[in-house]
Amino acid sequence: MCALQYLRPDLLDLKPYDAVPAPAADKLDANEFPLDWPVGFKQKLSLLWEKGIPSNRYPDAHHQGLKQAIAAYAGAEPEQISLGNGSDELIRSLLIATCLGGRGSILVAEPTFSMYAILAQSLGIPVVRVPRDSETFALDLERCQQTLREHPIRVVCLVDPNSPTGNGLTAAEWEWVEGLPDSILVILDEAYFEFSRHTALPKLAEHPNWVILRTFSKAFRLAAYRVGYAVGHPQLMQVLDGIRLPYNLTALSQWAVQMALEHAEELLADVALIGQEREALYQALQELPGVRVWPSQANFLYFRVAGWDPQKLQRAWQELGTCVRYTGGGLRLTVGTPEENRRALERLRQILQ
Ligand SMILES: Cc1ncc(COP(=O)(O)O)c(C=O)c1O
What we know:
By secondary structure, this protein is an alpha/beta fold.
């Protein structure tokens, strides 16, 4: 029983997103990009005042300039774009726009990005969880179909490539997604698009019930600035813009994204380094005793170690100075700098010896 009688009882059990601050450790737990912005770009960031952007005025509520720049980068039209304070905000807005008020449930295929279920729960929206195949992490399409028959599913949430497991959607899964009725919104979360280079965008025009989510927090290295975007049907974008807080992006965040897009080529050139490091880590992990590691299309690797409680392993690793994420019964290791990766492996070898 809670003393605060005005609180919604269903929120008392809500498990919030577990964002661990670990400044002293090699931070390989949040799928961030391991390199900060080049100094020259950072200096430009501090020149906000020179651009004549005043501190006393509210920032651009309509994100006009940003929508144009993002549309050009993504290969879409500005009216197909809506911006959020991180893609987290867009997930919440999409759930408000579809399921709030007892209008339906969401389907999530676990393990996957936990914010889908957390945000739905925070809004009182029922979450139907379908376990992924324990070997391949593919969707159990039969169970998914059964779920559609048995529950009033209004939103299907898919992450491509999936976090924490790193696998992209298979041909059979795409076929299923393409066959979903227009009454169901399909969220295709492409947070790791710049690493996988796979996108559903060319098919968006055929599917007014699909929406793509992307973020500047990963390959563009702007996690601190909190900007994500949705690409989808203009009418859905209008609704998303209508229900969000009016000034959801600070002037500094908008300026940072403009700069990121102006320098996209230079910033994204380092994505290749992450790919090389990921493959080297994958090989090295595979050679460790008892380690089962899955291939990944993103900037992280998912693995389990036979005979080890993953939570215990995570704590031991963190004590030695490498912070990783325990999730879905395994560990997710973000690809760091070559030096961080070398230390991560050295420490893991030490623990497993
Ligand atoms: C799949 C996925 N979607 C969305 C997000 C959230 O991104 P943002 O920082 O834009 O809120 C993350 C962050 O880790 C993620 O992994």
